[in-house]
């Protein structure tokens, strides 16, 4: 794992991103103290979403009614925004 100072990372930001894109994780330091680790973004999949929602109870029948009611409040006073133009 490579280390860069915050100043170096700022001045060589494009090089920093190139290294991360190539799979490196870089530790950024300020005053000899690590302040951040920057690495490649993790690819998300449908399996990740299923796992995240696994313990979530599905919406019940009242959920749809609540959404419809909320939309009614939002659109109740909706008129033509150009009418006065």
Major β-sheet strand ordering: 1-2-3
CATH class of the domain at 2-38: Alpha Beta
CATH superfamily of the domain at 2-38: YefM-like domain
Query: How are helices and strands ordered from N to C?
Result: EHHEEHH
Radius of gyration: 24 Å
Percent in helix: 40-55%
Name of the CATH architecture of the domain at 2-38? 3-Layer(aba) Sandwich
Return the CATH topology of the domain at 2-38.
Answer: YefM-like fold
Shape: elongated
> Kindly, what is the distance between the CA atoms of the first and last residues, rounded to a whole number of angstroms?
61 Å
Tell me the number of strands. 3
Are there runs of 5+ residues with pLDDT below 50, and where? none
Number of helices: 4
**Secondary-structure content class:** alpha+beta
Beta percentage is 15-25%
* Sheet with most strands: 3 strands, mixed
Instruction: Give the integer mean of the pLDDT values.
Output: 90
Quick overview:
The chain is built from 4 helices and 3 strands, in the order βααββαα. With 85 residues, the chain is of the alpha+beta class.
Topology:
Layout: E1 2-5, H1 6-11, H2 13-21, E2 26-30, E3 33-38, H3 46-53, H4 61-75
Parallel strand pairs: 1-2
Antiparallel strand pairs: 2-3
């Amino acid at each position: 794992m490579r280390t860069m100072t915050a100043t170096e990372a700022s001045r060589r930001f494009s090089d920093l991103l190139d290294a991360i894109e190539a799979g490196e994780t870089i530790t950024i330091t300020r005053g000899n103290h690590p302040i951040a680790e920057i690495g490649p973004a993790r690819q998300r999949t449908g399996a990740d979403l299923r796992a995240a929602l696994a313990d979530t109870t599905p919406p019940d029948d009242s959920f749809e009614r609540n959404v419809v009611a909320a939309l009614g409040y939002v659109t109740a006073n909706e008129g033509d925004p150009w009418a006065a133009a």
